[in-house]
Amino acid sequence: MANDAHTPTRLIRLPEVKLRTGLARSSIYRMMEDGGFPRPRKLGPRAVAWLVNDIDQWIDSRPAKPTR
After folding, report:
1. Is 21 exposed, middle or buried, given 0-12, 13-18 or 19+ CB atoms closer than 10 A?
2. Whole-number Å distance between alpha carbons of 45 and 55
3. CB atoms closer than 10 angstroms to residue 37
4. Which SS3 state, helix, strand or coil, does residue 68 take?
5. Which keywords does this chain's UniProt record carry (predicted)?
6. 3-state DSSP call for residue 38?
7. How far is Cα of residue 19 from the mean position of the Cα atoms in its chain?
8. What is the dihedral of CA 16, 26, 60, 8, to 10 degrees?
9. Helix (H), strand (E) at residue 49
């Protein structure tokens, strides 16, 4: 098992967040306003990115879709 203290943190931009979650930009920002989605880190005056660990934890917290 890897030690989390030594795992490098990776930042991902919106296109990768959309691919990982399957959500549209508007849905991501609406859920952020409601407190139901991780907030990004500010990289500069017009750039943000999310911690990949925050996105992975959010995905893992979602209930599994039941199969038929």
Report:
1. middle
2. 22
3. 20
4. coil
5. DNA-binding
6. coil
7. 10
8. 40
9. strand 47-51
Q: Which element (helix H / strand E) includes 64?
A: none
Give the tokens for residue 50. Answer: 């999310």
The tokens describing 31, both together, are 């859920």
Give this prediction's pTM. Answer: 0.81
Q: What is the C-alpha to C-alpha distance for residues 3 and 62, in angstroms, rounded to an integer?
A: 25
Distance separating alpha carbons of residues 43 and 7, to the nearest angstrom = 21
Cα(22)–Cα(37) distance, rounded to whole angstroms? 13
Quickly tell me which residue has 């930042």 as its tokens.
Answer: 11
Residue for token pair 């991902």: 12
